[in-house]
Structures are given as C-alpha cells and as structure tokens.
Amino acid sequence: KLGYVALNGVPVGDIPSSAFERNLSRIELVNCSFHHNDCQRLFLSPALESLKKLKLNNCQLEDEHMVFQAIGGLRSLAHLELRGNRIKHIAGLRQLDQPMKVLDLSNNPLTSCGEDVLAVEQLVVSRCGLKRLDLHVLAQCEVVVASHNDIRSIVSASSTRLQVLDLRNNVDLSKLPDSFFVDLKRLWQLELGNTSIDESDLRS
C-alpha cells in the first residue's frame, strides 16, 4: 500500500479527492496552489485516519482556506508543517484525541498564537513578526521556538510542561515577567541570544 505522497508545484484543484483515499501516513505538498475549498475537499476524509504527518509549505495558504478546521478530524496527525504561507490566525484547530507532536508555522504573518490553549508538544513560530508571547496559550507545550520575531513583551502563566523556550533574535525584548521562573517550573533551556535582556537581570 502507498504510504507517502509528495507533490511540488501542482495545482491542488487538479488532484482528485480519491488520490488520498488510502492508508497514507504522510502527505507533502510544497509550492502547490490551493483554491478556497481544497483543504476541506482533500482532508475531511475518513480514509486519512492513519495520516501522521502533513506538510503544506509555501502554498500561499491564508485564513480563508480554513486549514485548521479541515485537519481537525485527522485523529492520528502528529506533525503539521505550514511554513511560508500567509496564515494570520491560529483559529479553529479542534482538539485531537492526543496532542500534536509538532506544529510548525514559521514564516507566516501571525498576529498572535491564538486565544485557545494549543494541544501541541512542540510549537515553532519563528520569523512570524510576533510582537507578544502569551504563555497561557502555550501551557501544554514542552518546546516553543519563537526566534527571529519582534517580541517586546511576554505574558507569563503557570506551566508545568514548558521545558525549552527559544527567544533568540527578538532584539526589542528587554525584560521577562517577574514571576517567569516561578511559573515555568520545568524550564531548563532558555535561549536569549541577540535580545536586549542582560544576563545580570535574570533571576535564578
């Protein structure tokens, strides 16, 4: 049985929905163009219940494509990669049976990480132009990579899961919340290279 499909530069409208009606474990569509309803047409299928990894990079996806709503029924999905698209909001991501392992949204013009707590173990939001990081939304994450943004403030929240936080190259970030290290009880790796935070200001 075919377990892997990879396409580059193909108009998604030319792909019949029957093409994915198999026990696929991985789909990669790179530099492919989507019409408004292509995500729902292709991914709202019970036949994709075994899909573990979905990569839709550089496909010019926008909020109107409703990609998060479309993948909500993919019960086995563990890795979702949406790098280099035009997504501004993380909205409509339904709770899956188990937390997703990886959600990579690098190089999207995100306005925030959303309002609902993300059921994701590793979140990558590098080069998204983020100006604020709300740790409440990231309470279930173990690893957050938010480097190369414009983050100037962090909203602290208690988390017993976050272990790695990468804030490198947020040059205007000058301070951490007073309760930062108290709230993040399991944090063991904090990357602050090329920020405005002085190591002498950090509290152990």
Structural key phrases:
single chain; 204 residues; mainly beta; 9-stranded parallel beta sheet; two-stranded parallel sheet; 7% helix; 21% strand; elongated
How many distinct beta strands?
11
**Approximate helicity band:** under 10%
| Percentage of β-strand residues | 15-25%
Number of helices: 3
- As residue ranges, the low-confidence spans are none
The main β sheet shows up as: 9 strands, parallel
Judged by helices, strands and strand pairing, the structural class is mainly beta
Mean pLDDT: 89
| Cross-sheet strand order for the largest sheet | 1-2-3-4-5-6-8-10-11
Order of helix and strand elements from N to C terminus: EEHEHEEEEEEEHE
Ends: how far apart?
A: 54 Å
State Rg.
18 Å
Molecular shape: elongated
Describe what you observe in this structure:
With 204 residues, the protein is mostly beta strands. It has three helices and eleven strands. It has helices spanning 38-43, 67-70, 180-183; strands at residues 4-8, 26-30, 53-57, 79-81, 100-104, 120-124, 132-134, 143-145, 153-155, 164-166, 189-191. It has a nine-stranded parallel sheet with strand order 1-2-3-4-5-6-8-10-11, with no helix packed on it. The longest helix has 6 residues, at 38-43. The chain is elongated and about 60 Å long.
Give a brief rundown of this model:
The protein is mainly beta and 204 residues long. It is 7% helix and 21% strand.
